[in-house]
Amino acid sequence: MRIAITGAFGFLGCRLTEALLRLRTFRGAPIERLVLADRAVPPGATAATDPLVDVVHGDLIDRADEVFAKPVDVLFHLAAAVSAECEADFGLGMRENVDTTRALLDAARAQPATGGPVPRVVFSSSLAVYGSDPALPLPPVVSESTPPMPQSSYGMQKLLCEHLIADCTRRGFIDGRVARLMTVSVRPGKPNAAASGFLSGILREPLAGLPATCPVRTDLHVALTSPRRTIQGILRVAEAERGAGPGRLQGQLPVNLPALTVSVAEMLATLRQVAGDSAADLVTLAPDPAVEAIVGSWPAVFDNTRAAALGLEPDPDFLSVVREYLADRTAGETAGASTGSPRTPPGVR
Predict the structure, then answer these.
(1) Alpha carbons 145 and 189: distance in angstroms, whole number
(2) Predicted TM-score (pTM) of this structure
């Protein structure tokens, strides 16, 4: 079993790599090689030294054939430019999201033609494929049958990739699976360029004794999932057999990973509950219409039926998400890991 991960040294890529290296198997078969592909290998990346690992670093448009230099059984395609940077630079988003995906799909579909296995391609899409249009507003509860109408370039690019994967699957070139990710919170480390980055920052920074800015109104509701449940969802979509019945993927419909619906006000109240007034008061409300236009166009309430059929459930509440983040951070600090954030300040409870 040879597995490849793009964006392997990003946040979710690292989490997925750690999970697979712990398991050392996929669907009961031993993992013989794990190919980690990314633009660069960060200093101190311990996964790169694992004897199971091969590393491909550089621009994936130029390195797609290198990823498939030997037959790949499963490709997890996580690499992407994120929402705000795609809105700021259309060409960047098209290259990093659409052109890179096409290059990988071209390499993947060439594999069976040369006697290799039909590769299973697992694509991390996004809730940003949905959006409300004046002529066709979003329903109160969104499901996989809700027509996608992205209101950002990032969402449009993810939807284009979904269609490419669906057609390659229909043609028998690949076994494509699409997991639509909710906003992941709380992400550790430094802020990224995602419009939704503040949904981690308004917790992560105050919990480290640092100021944070909230760029949206506090009554805005969002769909969230913890890092742990996100990785669980990606793996489950990858592992599932096709066909009817519980635990199987029916047809080519994407799977919306399960979502916890919470308001920004509830998130800030949880911060106050966990860390007290001194931490909560570090958050400043500073409306940013550009950020709210993107994040506010995303749905907040999802029908989780399709995910539940695969055995996936949303986080029970936001308090559990914050406690999971603190537990993971404490474990990392105890192990001497570099998290990029100061230690938990006194008073966190």
Answers:
(1) 35
(2) 0.92
